[in-house]
Amino acid sequence: MTVANVEETAFKEQSSPTKPSSESALEDQYYKVCHEMVLNLTQDEKEHAARTSYKYFMLSISQTGSKPSEAEQLKCAMAMAKRHLIAENGDQECALKKMKNTIQYRKDINVDGIRRAFYEKEGPDEEKNKEYQHIRNNLEHQMSTGIVHVRGYDTRKAANYIAFPRLKISDDPEWYIKANIYTLERALACSERASEGEVEKVCCFFDYSGYKSKHSPPVTLIRDLFFCLRDHYPERMKHVFIVDAPVIFRSFWYLIRPFLDPVTKSKVKFVAGEVQKQEVFAGIINKDQAMNFMYPDGGKTKEMNVMEFLYDIPYDHAFDED
After folding, report:
1. Strand ranges for the chain from DSSP E
2. The whole model's pTM is what?
3. What is the distance of C-alpha 233 from the center of its chain?
4. Which strands sit side by side in the sheet containing 268-271, from one edge to the other?
C-alpha cells in the first residue's frame, strides 16, 4: 500500500461510517483537493504544515524515539490544507496561496521557538540560547498579569482561551501579537491532546468586567491581530464569548468589528448577567471547567500563577488542570 493509500484510509476513518452518502462524498472531495494542495508544497513546507499539530511537532523534534512517518506528515499537512480550503469556500487556488503564506508567516515569527522557549535547556548553541531567552523575557513580561492563559475545556474537549483585557501590560506591537499566538497555539495543543486529535478548535472567553477605555489597545493593533487570526488561523475558533462588557466597550467594538471576517463575526456572542450565562453556557461548558466569571460557582478557582503556567506545566496542558 502506498503512502497516499495509507493516508486516504486514515483521512476517511476520521469520518463516522454512519454518515449520509452526501457527507461521505464531500469528505472524498476534500481528501482529493487537500491531497493535491499538499503535493504542491515543497518538502520544507510540508514539514512546517504538519507542525501545526503540536503532537507531530513534538515527535519531529524528539531526540529519542522514532520520527513521524511520511504518512503522519501528510495527514497533518492535509488537516491544515482542509482548514484553509473551508475558509476559502472551496477555492483551491486561493486556499493553497493562503496556506503557503501561513507557513511562511509561522517561520517568520518563529512559532516553533515560541512554543518551546520555556522548556528548552541551555545548549552549546549560544545564538539559540539567546533567542529562547529573548522570547522568554518578552512573553513573561507581556503575560505577567495573567491577561491571557488557557484554563478548562468545553464539553467536547476544546480548550478555553481565557482573556482579561483589564489586565493589559503594554501595547508593544510585536509581543502583543506573539503573546496571543503563544496562548492560542497552547490552547490548540491542549484541545488536540485532550480530545486525542478529534478537536482542532478552541473556545474564547473575554472577561470584560472592570473594563475602562484606558484598557483598549490601539485600534491598529487589534486590526493586526484580527487579520493574523483571519489569515493564519482559519477554522480554529469554535466560540467567542464577550462576557460582562460595559456600555463603554460598545463604542470600541463598533471600531474593531469591521476587521473581523464574517465567519468569526458570526461566532461572537455578548453574554451578561447570571441568567443569560446559565442559558448560553449550558451545554457548552460544565461548571467544573468554568471560571467564576462564567458561573458564580465555577470550579476553576485556583489563583493564577503565571510562572507556573509558563515554566512548569506542559505546553499541551491547561492551567489548573486535574
Report:
1. 148-153, 159-163, 202-207, 237-243, 268-271
2. 0.92
3. 7
4. 148-153, 159-163, 202-207, 237-243, 268-271
